[in-house]
């Protein structure tokens, strides 16, 4: 799951590098919210819920 | 010029932090935990914001990306500090210059938040004609390559460590290498 997050961010970086600003920002926010989801999962995992 | 140097300085600091993290992983065989990996993603997202500034010119929204990412990184680092703050709870990984990496991560995130908030307020950067010399143009591409390589190295390392599943809380081996 974490690898997918990194890969989305890599695509964001590559699209920014090639000059596609809007797509890169969209991919950035996809990666950002995915990261928040993973953080939430690991936080709830500590108390045995793993949501 | 000042804002440009500040952007460059912050971006270089982030590249150094991520390079140290990779060095500790591959040279000293310290496997990153899920929260450590989330902090790495946070730093890479901060670097992405600065790269947008270098590529497309200075815009407040790019600094918003930096601040949101730095807040995320600080929050994850603080969560990890909270996990190990009680006496006897132990720590994750070896200390670096007297502090653990997650503590350094929290300090670095807070410094980035403070410095970026100051740079964000320098209004003249948005109105000034954003001239780019050839050297600056080449440097922007070089920085894109450096961040891209660090990101690619992290992707390979994460795939070897956890595959495409959720990473274990306390990793002790590369899942894809040792069965």
How would you sum up this structure, described in words?
The complex is a heterodimer of chains A (51) and B (179). Chain A is mainly alpha-helical. Chain A is built from 2 helices and no strands. In chain A, helix 1 (2-17) packs antiparallel against helix 2. Chain A is elongated. Chain A starts with a helix and ends in a 5-residue tail after the last helix. Chain B is mostly helical. Chain B has a single domain (2-162), classed as Up-down Bundle (Bromodomain-like), CATH 1.20.1550. Helix content of chain B is 70%, strand content 0%. Chain B is built from 6 helices and no strands. Chain B has helices at 2-26, 34-56, 60-84, 101-120, 124-127, 134-162. In chain B, helix 1 (2-26) runs antiparallel to helix 2, helix 1 runs parallel beside helix 6 and helix 3 runs antiparallel to helix 4. The longest helix of chain B has 29 residues, at 134-162. Chain B is globular. Chain B starts with a helix and ends in a 17-residue tail after the last helix. Classes of the chains: A mainly alpha (51), B mainly alpha (179). Chains A and B meet through helix 1 and helix 2 of A and helix 2, helix 3 and helix 6 of B.
List keywords for this structure.
heterodimer, A: mainly alpha, 2 helices, B: 179 residues, mainly alpha, Bromodomain-like, 6 helices, 0% strand
- Low-confidence segments of chain B, given as residue ranges, are none
* Total helical segments of chain A: 2
Strand runs of chain A, count: 0
Strand content of chain B: under 5%
SSE string of chain B, helices as H and strands as E: HHHHHH
Shape of chain A: elongated
The level-1 CATH class of chain B: Mainly Alpha
Number of domains of chain B: 1
Radius of gyration of chain B: 18 Å
As a percent range, the share of helical residues of chain B equals over 70%
CATH topology of chain B: Bromodomain-like
What is the terminal separation of chain A in angstroms? 14 Å
Mean pLDDT of chain B: 88
The largest pleated sheet of chain B is described as: none
Based on CA atoms alone, the radius of gyration of chain A comes out at 13 Å
Low-confidence stretches of chain A: none
What summary fits the major beta sheet of chain A? none
